[in-house]
Every structure is written in C-alpha cells, then in structure tokens.
Amino acid sequence: MKIAVYQMADSGDPVQNIARAYQAIVNTDADFFALPEFFTIPGGDFRRPYTLQTCLEETALPALEMFRQASRQFRGYIIGGSIVEREADCYYNTCYVFKEGEEITRYRKINITHEEVELNICRGTRPVTFETEFGKVGLMICADCISWDVVEATCAGAKLVFLPVSLTDPNHPPFTGHPVSDIIARKYGSTVIKITRVGTFGGKTLSSRSAITTPEGTYWEAPDAREHFEVIEVSETAT
C-alpha cells in the first residue's frame, strides 16, 4: 500500500495552492493521497480578511472542482485535507474524499477550535469512517484528535486514520515526537497518517512534522518542518 503525504507550504495565493496540489496528485502513483487542513487558505503572514462566504467562493469551491478532476487521473483515494463547506446557513471545516471522479464521503470537523467558533464555523456532529479494499478508514481533522469521544467513535476498528492538521500556532507549547498519534495507534491498533501544513509567521517558517504512526511507533516522519512530499510504502504487517 502506498500513501502519498504532501506537507504543503502556503504560497499565500489560493489559486497557486490549489494548482500545486493538483499537479502533485495527478503526477503521483499511490493508493492514498493526503493533504493538510485548510490547505487552500492563505494564513499566517499571508492571512486575508475573508468572510466565510468569500472564503468558500475563492478557496473551497475551486478546490472541490480540482478534487473531481484530479481523481479522474489519480487511481487511488484523495483525502482532501479540509476546505470550507456550506449547508444552509452553516459553514463547516470539511474533509472530502474522492475517487474516480466521485465523492466517496465527507467529514465535518467536530472538535472545532476557539478561533473557528469566533469565525462562526459550525461544529460537525457525525464521526465518519468508510470501507476500502485496504480496510476501514477513519477521518479526523486537527483538534479532533484530543477529543476522546471523537477518537473512540472514529478509530475503533479503523485500520487507517487520516489526520490533516493546519498551520502551527507560534504560541503552541513545544513538543517532540507524535504523542497523540502514538496513543491512538497503540490503543486502537490503527495506523495514523498525520499531514501538516507549513506556514510563515513573522517571516519564520513554522510547522510540525507529518508522520505515519503504527502501533509499534513512528513508521515514517518528514525530515524537517519545511515543505515536503513523499510516497511511503506501508506494508500490510505495519498496519
């Protein structure tokens, strides 16, 4: 099984962010291709005063069309990080999964952050897993991994768990390794694929490292906290 992880740097331009993701997807041979949380939206030093509606129109809808097009050329599952989704009067932080031009499923982030609450993003209500030829796959987004209700509902019985995360907060306490992924992988016997985003804050590049964690520990880790793309061969015994 091949998993493509794109630890993507924010270019400051949603058109470029989407185009770079598209080129990476269609030129990759893998069973899964995973992107970070809010990979389309300029953040950090590039942050813009979007309304949720303009963010939807300028960053999310073009990304959704890109997923459809790219998935017609990419043979595997596209795990679309996350983008803004609107239903009625609610906006959600949503991870879409595409394959062969079709939407397989979508997941709305449940454990939203204080910043997302202030932006009036709505909280999802339904954990999501889906079946593949490689076994059951679970979806979480960033802070979901510290809500044990969400973790239990998503990870129990899941062979793979995808965890897209976004720009590192410069005020976040420093840490080493992947302690939450380690706990989840050991407790549920799952392989956790964390995909991080790279941002610039005060001119300084910041990111945590993307990683694939199995019940035995870290199987693969990005070499540094800068932009990095890699296709990782994960054996059946590792998962």
UniProtKB/TrEMBL annotation:
Which keywords label this protein? Answer: Hydrolase
Q: Where is the CN hydrolase domain?
A: 1-239
Is ATP-binding one of the keywords UniProt gives this record?
no
A GO term for molecular function: hydrolase activity
**Can you tell me which residues the record assigns to a coiled coil?**
none
One Pfam family recorded for the sequence: CN_hydrolase
Q: Member of which family?
A: Belongs to the carbon-nitrogen hydrolase superfamily. NIT1/NIT2 family.
What is the protein's given name? Answer: Carbon-nitrogen hydrolase family protein
**What is the scientific name of the source organism?**
Dehalogenimonas sp. 4OHTPN
